[in-house]
Specification:
By secondary structure, the protein is an alpha/beta fold. Helix content is about 40%, strand content about 15%. Helix 1 packs across helix 2 and helix 7 crosses helix 8. Bound molecules: zinc ion.
Amino acid sequence: MDADQVVVGIDNGATKNNATVLDASGRFLVDRMYEIPSRVGDGPDAAIEAMAETMELVLSETGTAPERVAAVGLDTPGPASADGVISVKGATNFSQAAWWGYDVRSALETRIGLPVVYNNDGNAAALYAHYVHFGADAPARSSVSAIVGTGLGGGVIEAGSVIRGASGQAGELGHVQIFTDGLLAADQPMPTCNCGNSGDVESFASLTGIVRNLLPYWLTRHPDHPLAAVPIVQAAKELRTFGVDGDEMALKVFEQQAAALGRLFTIAANFTDPSAYFVGGGVVEAAPHFSQWFLERVRADTTLREEQAAVATFALVADRDMAGARGSAFAALASLA
Ligand SMILES: [Zn+2]
């Protein structure tokens, strides 16, 4: 990229878009969220127009001339192919038939007349964590990221690039099944996931897993807990506040989530042996003592060989809200190298 050029990252969500601008020196020109309606529910034409408008807004707000843009990175929720074709079976965020099998990357590229690089939101967040953590060393390093949200997102990075797989579905870490011996309490039912699996990572380490599996069980052990009187979806959202305050039942739930992530990372250690293990999501937005406690639990539950432990790093992924747009910008920059 020439010194006067920039790349743009666009993060498309169910209801809102965010965007950023990254210049040739590696500096982000945006330090706040742009929450532009994404109009995904109005169908592809409206949504592509909203993405283009989001880009125009971020360029005008940063005083960046449109002709300086060398490439654009885009991320959306999945499932989608590696080059941005929404699943033919639809997706939670793309439920209308007009979206099924829709090539969102090509459509945006045609609309704005610039090269567009696509990642799903989990992979964009993983790229962001990787590039922020490693800086100039990023192209030579590897990492695995687990982002705990409604589901379990993240991705696998090798030599600075996302591992996409033959069909674009590599790095679906949430649906990796883990060894549950010693993880579940003696009378605790095996957690189940929306995908049909039992005992996969997302069935523990996600808000959905708390609602569906962990909290209903732990409330049977703590029937007098204040959250027993709260509807389960609301109770799950409030659980982190209890965890921050050291509540015994909440800590049991988060210990199980951390243990599930540790078992996932143990698989990663034997699979790609990454240089870094990143944990992100809502837990990182909690008080630092709680975030650090959670990360330490994940580390303690990850089994590494001595040689691996000597070189591996565990870290929290900061700036969760900005991760999609910024990771997409890094992907656009990498595509020009
Ligand atoms: Zn699953």
